[in-house]
Design goal:
mainly alpha; globular
Length: 145
């Protein structure tokens, strides 16, 4: 997915990963996490400004996750599903029109150069799920041992 030019890099990376993971489920893929392969030396900047720019994501992550767990598409191709998801996110006010137009142009460019997208696996289509309650990370509630 394309990087949006509005928020901090961290916000964009996290936001993009939510959408990408949801689309990966429909082609039979999952995300795995590993330790970093590089050392990052941050340039001097305002960590408070970073936090403030990322705050909407932190406050809306549960709602975004719940939305993505419920989202379904009638599109049969991955580019169609990408476009469908982004348009839906635009309609909910999560993405801007520019995000949708840039992604549509990016998808057209990929198709134009002959990129072959992974097939949507109808046997592995995600059929919905249930978001954890707020405050529940590992199955325990606050205060549980």
């Amino acid at each position: 997915m394309m990087k949006r030019g509005v928020e901090s890099v961290n916000f964009v990376t996290i936001d993009r990963s939510y959408l990408t993971e949801r689309l990966m489920w429909d082609i039979g893929l999952v995300i795995a996490f590993a330790p970093p392969f590089v050392n990052q030396f941050r340039n001097p900047h305002s960590y408070l400004a970073d936090f403030e720019s990322e705050l909407p994501l932190y406050l809306q992550a549960s709602a975004l996750t719940a939305f993505l767990l419920e989202w379904k598409s009638s599109e049969s191709t991955l580019p169609g599903r990408v476009e469908d998801l982004l348009i839906t996110m635009f309609e909910y006010g999560i993405l801007g029109a520019r995000d949708v137009k840039l992604t549509q142009a990016f998808l057209r460019d990929l198709l134009r150069i002959g990129y072959v997208f992974p097939k949507v696996d109808s046997d592995k289509l995600f059929s919905g799920g249930k978001a954890l309650e707020a405050g529940v990370v590992d199955g325990r509630r606050d205060g549980d041992s």
